[in-house]
Design goal:
single chain; 288 residues; mainly alpha; ABC transporter involved in vitamin B12 uptake, BtuC; two-stranded antiparallel ribbon; 11 helices; 2% strand
């Protein structure tokens, strides 16, 4: 009983770490650019595939992929923002959602045609192989690494956005971009870099997920709806809300799998419905 519960909670914590990291990128893009980035799941998938292809064709290992894949995917995101997305900022946010949804479909379709829908395995790096027997459960070393790094990255981003001058510039660019531009800040460049950074976070999560899950073109679409639920529950655009809610919902999902497994697929959306009934702006969101 204890072993089964501990195992499911560990799985939930790992899933929650990815939810937190991915929803953080979504919250940054929405909170600072007011764009609902429906391509986030596809960009997460793209990060995993860049790491897998770098290993298969170039021999680039996991540690380098953690750096290079987010940079490469973030650069693609920066180019997408410059070519297409920036022209929609003054329009209804629905246009941005439709554009990013179309990009997600193109990316997923292209990778399905190129690699099929069967998964590709990615090896755990040698330094993180194995684990520790705690008596009541076996604790894989790589899973511990994923949780610790995800929490550290989320906390560092929260500090950067909420407590630094750079973060104040980013928030000011959302509230009054014309005034910030008058003070000499290149607001278009800042917006592009913000989008590229949020996309890079998704790719970083994809690289970390590659040794745990199968690298497949559908890995992004399987998680994107949960991510939007996490962002809505935490509060649209709330950095702290996305982090806390992502980790918490992962644990709730793991506990639900232990108590009644069939309900684990819908428990996140049940929680979202309850939160929206009681607090429409989300747990950490601001009432407008």
């Amino acid at each position: 009983m204890i072993q089964a519960l501990s195992g499911q909670l560990l799985v939930g914590l790992i899933n929650g770490s990815f939810y937190a990291l991915l929803s953080l990128g979504l919250a940054i893009i929405f909170g600072l650019l007011d764009v609902v980035n429906f391509a986030h799941g596809a960009q997460y998938m793209l990060g995993a595939f860049v790491a897998w292809m770098a290993l298969q064709y170039l021999g680039i290992n996991y540690w380098w992929a953690l750096i290079l894949a987010p940079l490469a995917v973030g650069a693609l995101g920066l180019g997408f923002e410059w070519l297409m997305l920036r022209h929609l900022y003054r329009l209804d946010p629905l246009y941005g959602l439709l554009l990013t949804f179309g990009v997600a479909l193109v990316l997923e379709g292209s990778f399905q045609n190129a690699f099929g829908i069967s998964g590709n395995s990615y090896p755990v790096p040698g330094l993180l192989q194995g684990g520790t027997n705690l008596g009541f459960m076996y604790l894989p070393r790589y899973r511990v690494w994923v949780v610790l790094v995800s929490v550290a990255v989320c906390f560092a981003n929260w500090l950067m956005i909420e407590k630094t001058r750079l973060g104040s510039y980013l928030r000011a660019g959302t509230e009054n971009p014309a005034l910030l531009q008058a003070f000499g800040v290149n607001v278009p460049l800042m917006r592009g870099l913000t989008y590229g950074y949020g996309v890079g976070l998704a790719a970083f999560a994809g690289v970390m997920a590659a040794p745990i899950y199968q690298v497949t073109p559908l890995m992004g679409s399987s998680v994107i709806m949960v991510l939007f639920a996490v962002v809505v529950i935490g509060g649209m655009g709330s950095i702290a809300g996305s982090i806390v809610t992502g980790l918490g919902l992962g644990l709730i999902e793991g506990l639900t799998k232990f108590l009644y497994a069939p309900a684990s697929d819908v428990v996140v959306f049940v929680v979202m419905a309850l939160v929206l009934l009681l607090r429409p702006a989300g747990l950490f969101g601001r009432q407008r």
